[in-house]
Amino acid sequence: MATEFSIEEATVQDLQLAFQTNQLTSRQLVEFYLNQINIQNPVLKGVLEVNPDALAEADKADQERREKAPGSLSRLHGIPMLVKDNIATKDKLNTTAGSFALLGSVVPRDAGVVTKLREAGAIILGKATLSEWSNYRSNGAPSGWSARGGQGKNPYTLDDPCGSSSGSAISVAANLVTVSLGTETDGSILCPSGLNSVVGIKPTVGITSRAGVIPISPRQDTVGPICRTVSDAAYVLETIAGIDTFDEATIEASKYIPEGGYAQFLKKDGLIGKRIGVVKRYYSFRNDTFPDKTFKLHLKTLRQRGAVLVDNLKIDNIDEIISDPSEEIAMNFEFKLSLNAYLKDLVASPVRSLADVIAFNKKNPKLEELDKYGQDIMLQAEKTNGIGSIQKEALLNMTRWSENGFEKLIKTNELDAVVTPFSSFSSILAIGGYPGIIVPAGYEKGKPFGICFGGLKGSEPKLIEIAYSFEQATLIRKPPPLRNSEI
């Protein structure tokens, strides 16, 4: 391998060029990442399991590259990926949501998004750690912790990595893998991506299949890329987007997928003419959690790059959305119904219902560290009994808030997107099934933070143009220090 090529921080495009010029093979790439996992993962705990067939998959990719015509393979061909451990893989890897309750369970098939990755020739390097049950087990459990994976750590600060797609963000940030997949119900891609200085895309619900994903809320769940650059995230998104007959939501949402994919929207001048709203609530800070001056500088950059900023906006029902328990009420009954359906569909499993999971946890407190964190969210969900008047009202509330709040804000002001610091906007995007993309925005005392752009359903093309143009104007991301000893 030529010494001038560095795998660290390499983009998908860099790697493909190295493949084509015989500077690198997929096997060498996988060996590099396996070595990095061996060195750093004991500290960072971003990777839960490594695929024992990863090197064989790499050899297969190298063979295909030798045999097939240049340009005939996909952008992700031969590229190693981690998938969050709530995304099913029909191979030697487990799919457990970080819980011992599902260890040894057998999934019927690959998740829809994994099928698309394999068809593209991507290499499944392994499973990323996560907040156990995607943060839907206990209010007491810290972000990034699971019984199987332990406590994931932010590679920059060795503290909170945010969740629930913590391992997916940690591993990409620390160069343990090229790109990864996360899932989001409310904040679970956007928050860890922002805190670990990487790019995360939370797609419109249904653009990517949730079939084979351990669920929380079919109304809000979505699968998306976590990568080091906007371009890599666009490549992954266009690979996994599309219809899957095992997820009906993908049929309706497919109308939003642009012909020709998402990479065509990687435009350096993508900010020109974009109308971007600034919601006052999200950058009038009364503490030091976000460097307000930096955010204002970024707003200036957006203007300089040709965007029209519409400032001092207010979402009419924002206080109601934040204080009302409707989202929690809805997710409780949705979690029980959808998890029971997922567990019943497994070929083999130690648990077949939410009630079984709760019973397993009670019987095995040492395995699940129940004495520490409990399972109050699960207990609350188990008490639900289908969809009654309270549940219907909660669903109607969220529809009304979305139509009279975020949608009204965008349409009245003729906006292409809204910009916020951090992932502070995630609940607004979550309850309406709207997309968002977060990009590295800086470091405050060494701690990374991101800037987030959100829009209406199907606005991914505009969001990618905006995010890519901002990223290219600022180029803020820097890799974390190498973590090779216990601290």
From TrEMBL:
<protein>
    <submittedName>
        <fullName>Amidase C869.01-like protein, putative</fullName>
    </submittedName>
</protein>
<dbReference type="Pfam" id="PF01425">
    <property type="entry name" value="Amidase"/>
</dbReference>
<feature type="domain" description="Amidase">
    <location>
        <begin position="29"/>
        <end position="422"/>
    </location>
</feature>
<dbReference type="InterPro" id="IPR036928">
    <property type="entry name" value="AS_sf"/>
</dbReference>
<dbReference type="InterPro" id="IPR023631">
    <property type="entry name" value="Amidase_dom"/>
</dbReference>
